[in-house]
């Protein structure tokens, strides 16, 4: 079946490879792994993911509901700030609720009675190459760091969440930061039942020392007598998904340009935010093209890539690694056709699971 581009294509075989590494980690270390829905919320493949993960974590009422209704398992609720009118619905969908501040904890502890309560801590150290994604940036609002504020509310919580990594593929850096957390927050950790170490750790990567990582987590868990959680987003879906596009026009403005039926701003926004190039494989050959989106943004550029042959209108290009922070961020900028979502099943068959129409565009506005 030839699908109309643009579409995201989730390859379950690649996804399963990541999930098997997650399962191995869980078995060896005893940690529980929760999918971070902020990164990937394509519920058509939740059945496969739920076989290898313990549940989900969320950043909003909508995400916590989705996790509860479509994924199952353990459902953690977290948000930078909850409002009065959503707290009851959040509580109804979660097993644990993690507050970002002592203020929020104090305000909503009553409404959340009966659930396990947690607090986000900020160790004021992090691993992130991007200031915009650095939870330990100056004046960060993400979590409490002052023991004088944390210790008095410890009797109200059973655990904490500490998320301080972004795209961290260095085990040494992870271990060092964890040692810092142990030194700084030991008096807190020894009074808890569970600790979530957040996401941002790229432990499904091929060369990541998974055994050493598992053993470090197990030692942490045994030392403090806590159940450890991880909240992998990107690590879960890395390399599992492509964005399939078609060339609509070829131009030359000193460079050869290929305009495709997609938009980096609308369909892979993170690349623009972090000023990163997309990935195209194998990216070799004597023909160089700047692959550009079709929105009006002058900088709507996926990147410059090498091709074996010259490109022509109608050619297809697969933009790689388009699973994390893409489908959850896609938007209707310029009214550009929103990519459909397709899944390559384990037996190789491709199944269209979602397509978008003019009505969806109209319904997103009023
Ligand atoms: C609290 C929290 N948990 C988990 C994640 C997932 O991170 P990643 O997709 O990098 O694994 C994030 C990402 O921002 C986060 O803020």
Record the SSE blueprint.
Elements: E1 7-11, H1 12-29, E2 32-36, H2 46-50, E3 55-57, H3 61-71, E4 74-79, H4 87-93, E5 96-99, H5 102-108, E6 116-120, H6 147-150, E7 159-161, H7 171-189, E8 194-196, H8 210-224, E9 227-230, H9 234-237, E10 241-252, E11 256-260, H10 264-267, H11 269-273, E12 279-280, E13 287-292, E14 301-307, E15 316-320, E16 340-344, E17 350-354, H12 358-363
Parallel strand pairs: 1-16, 2-3, 2-9, 3-4, 4-5, 5-6, 6-7, 7-8, 8-9, 11-13
Antiparallel strand pairs: 1-10, 10-11, 10-15, 12-15, 13-14, 16-17
Helix pairs in contact: 1-8, 3-4, 7-8
The protein binds pyridoxal-5'-phosphate.
Oligomer: single chain
SSE topology string: EHEHEHEHEHEHEHEHEHEEHHEEEEEEH
- What percent of the residues sit in helical stretches (DSSP H or I)? 25-40%
Per DSSP, the total helix count is 12
**Ligands, deduplicated:** pyridoxal-5'-phosphate
Residue-averaged pLDDT, rounded? 97
Q: How many strand units? A: 17
Describe the global form.
globular
Biggest sheet, open or closed, and with what strands and sense?
9 strands, mixed
Terminal Cα span: 35 Å
Low-confidence stretches: none
Give the amount of beta strand, in percent. 15-25%
> What's the gyration radius in Å?
22 Å
Structural class: alpha/beta
Task: Describe the protein's architecture and organization.
The chain is an alpha/beta fold and 366 residues long. It is 29% helix and 23% strand. The protein is built from 12 helices and 17 strands. The strands form 2 sheets. Strands 1, 10, 11, 12, 13, 14, 15, 16 and 17 form a 9-stranded mixed β-sheet that branches. The chain has an 8-stranded parallel beta barrel with strand order 2-3-4-5-6-7-8-9, surrounded by 4 helices. The radius of gyration is 22 Å and the shape is globular. 40% of the residues are buried. The mean pLDDT is 97. The site of pyridoxal-5'-phosphate has 14 residues, from helix 9.
């Amino acid at each position: 079946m030839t699908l109309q581009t643009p579409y995201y294509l989730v390859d379950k075989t690649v996804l399963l490879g990541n999930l098997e590494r997650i399962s191995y980690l869980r078995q060896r270390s005893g940690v529980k792994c929760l999918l971070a829905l902020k990164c990937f919320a394509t519920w058509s493949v939740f059945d496969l993911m739920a076989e290898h993960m313990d549940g989900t974590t969320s950043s909003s009422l909508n995400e916590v509901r989705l996790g509860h209704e479509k994924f199952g398992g353990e459902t953690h609720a977290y948000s930078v700030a909850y409002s009065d009118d959503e707290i009851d619905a959040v509580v109804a969908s979660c097993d644990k609720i993690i507050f970002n501040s002592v203020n929020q904890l104090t305000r909503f502890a009553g409404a959340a009675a009966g659930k396990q309560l947690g607090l986000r801590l900020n160790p004021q150290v992090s691993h992130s190459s991007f200031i915009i994604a650095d939870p330990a940036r100056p004046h960060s609002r993400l979590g409490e760091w002052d023991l004088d504020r944390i210790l008095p509310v410890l009797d109200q919580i059973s655990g904490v969440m500490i998320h301080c990594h972004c795209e961290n593929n260095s085990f040494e850096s992870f271990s060092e930061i964890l040692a810092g957390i142990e030194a700084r927050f030991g008096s807190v950790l020894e009074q808890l039942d569970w600790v979530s170490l957040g996401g941002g750790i790229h432990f499904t990567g091929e060369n990541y020392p998974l055994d050493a990582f598992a053993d470090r987590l197990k030692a942490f868990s045994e030392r403090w007598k806590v159940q450890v959680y991880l909240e992998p987003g990107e690590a879960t879906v890395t390399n599992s998904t492509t964005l399939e596009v078609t060339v609509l026009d070829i131009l030359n403005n000193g460079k050869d340009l290929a305009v495709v039926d997609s938009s980096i701003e609308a369909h892979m926004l993170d690349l623009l935010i972090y000023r990163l190039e997309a990935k195209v494989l194998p990216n070799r050959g004597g023909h160089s093209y700047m692959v550009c989106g079709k929105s009006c943004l002058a900088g709507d550029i996926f990147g410059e890539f090498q091709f074996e042959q010259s490109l022509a209108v109608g050619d297809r290009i697969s933009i790689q690694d388009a699973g994390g922070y893409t489908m959850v961020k896609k938007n209707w900028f310029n009214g550009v056709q929103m990519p459909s979502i397709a899944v390559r099943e384990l037996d190789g068959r491709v199944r269209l699971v979602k397509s978008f129409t003019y009505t969806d565009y109209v319904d997103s506005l009023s």
